[in-house]
Amino acid sequence: MDGWRGTAVTTSIFTAAAVTDWLDGYIARKMKLKSTFGAFLDPVADKLMVAATLVLLCTRPLKVAVLAQAPWLLILPSITIIGREITMSALREWAASQGSKLVEAVAVNNLGKWKTATQMMALTILLATVTAVMEDLPFW
After folding, report:
1. More confident residue, 106 or 128
2. Half-sphere exposure (CA, 13 Å, Cβ side) for 129?
3. How far is the C-alpha of 31 from the C-alpha of 25, rounded, in Å?
4. What is the pTM for the complete model shown?
5. How far apart, in whole angstroms, are the C-alpha atoms of residue 64 and residue 70?
6. How many CB atoms lie within 10 A of CB 21?
7. Which of 10, 20, 78, 82 is the most exposed place for a label (fewest CB within 10 A)?
8. Which residue has the higher pLDDT, 132 or 110?
9. What is the pLDDT, as a whole number, of residue 105?
10. Nearest to 54 by CA among 106, 118, 120
């Protein structure tokens, strides 16, 4: 499905996933329903959502003058973001095997939650505007 309908569906699915991810965490914190498995799986789901979206965005050529001159402007930040996510996951896994002092040093904190929220909002905006950018349409 191409055009604005495809963009609307894609953006809606991504937004629904991001909102339900946030809602799940909010409810778990409010009702004190934390679990070890949930603490492990939630960041994995976030990283998978972000990485899959970035990879898929990199597979569609954008018709923007700046990107035509330097196509790496979308690919390099995507590689950097995905690389950082993998590195942090590996670092947390290693720290967990080493002891409690290191686990506290790399534990998820509010800065990480803000980073994830910012990524989700930025990707939602990028998904919502990608059709206009791909077809050289004004998107405002």
Report:
1. 128
2. 12
3. 10
4. 0.79
5. 10
6. 17
7. 20
8. 110
9. 67
10. 120
Residue with tokens 């003058």: 65
Element (H, E) at 132: helix 110-134
Q: List, as one string, the DSSP characters of 50-99.
A: HHHHHHHHHTS----HHHHH-THHHHHHHHHHHHHHHHHHHHHHHHHHH-
Burial 23-41 (b: 16+ CB within 10 A, else e): eebeeeeeeeeeeeeeeee
Sort residue 120 into left (φ over 0), alpha (ψ -120 to 50) or beta.
alpha
Is residue 31 classed as helix, strand or coil in its secondary structure?
Answer: coil
The most distant pair of C-alpha atoms in the chain lies apart, rounded to whole Å, by: 54
Q: What percent of the chain has pLDDT over 70?
A: 81
- pLDDT one-digit tens code per residue, 57-101: 888 766 666 666 777 778 899 999 999 999 988 888 888 788 777
Using the Cα atoms of residue 2, residue 53, residue 136 and residue 72 in order, give the sign of their dihedral: negative
Q: Which of 121, 123, 49, 38 is nearest to 85 (CA)?
A: 49
- Polymer length in residues for the chain: 140
